[in-house]
Amino acid sequence: MAKRNIVKLGDDVLRKVCRTQLTFDERLHQTLDDMAETMYEAEGVGLAAPQVGILRRYCVIDVGDGLIELVNPVIDETKGEQEGDEGCLSLPGRYECVKRPMYVKVHAQDRNGNNIIVEGEGLKARALCHEIDHLDGVLFIDKSEKI
Ligand code: CO
């Protein structure tokens, strides 16, 4: 595995809509491994492909209950609401209050192309929304209460 550079705010790559990932090959597996290593080293709870300069729809998340890899994730269902401070590895040191659903249900594919369902509450729901937003070029500051 190898650590990747995390793209910071101001780079256009963070504002692009990412394309569907169609191949589930060794190259994807290597990139997902690298993204997990990069996320853990940076002590983040999520990292999306555009944050390592790749305009494809996948991300990694770990809010403390194990690594989740999501390829082509789509939010199917949301419930409730939560407000809390949110940050991003692409905006180091910046935290702002963002309203998110309390619960989300997501369908996606795993690294081998199998269909998976992931549910999350609280921080996990927040991380799922945040990372999936990245795949559409949306950053948490766009949704911040302080705008
Ligand atoms: Co982020």
Question: How many alpha or pi helices?
Answer: 2
Q: What name goes with the CATH superfamily?
A: Peptide deformylase
Order of helices and strands: HEEEEEEEH
Order of strands across the main sheet: 1-2-3-6-7
Shape: globular
SS-based class: alpha+beta
Percentage of residues assigned to helices: 10-25%
Query: How many β-strands, per DSSP?
Result: 7
Name of the CATH class: Alpha Beta
Strand content: 25-35%
Are any ligands bound, and if so which? cobalt (II) ion
Mean pLDDT: 97
- Please indicate the count of domains: 1
- Radius of gyration based on Cα positions: 14 Å
**Spatial gap, N to C terminus:** 39 Å
The CATH topology corresponds to Peptide Deformylase
Low-confidence stretches: none
CATH architecture: Alpha-Beta Complex
Largest pleated sheet:
5 strands, antiparallel
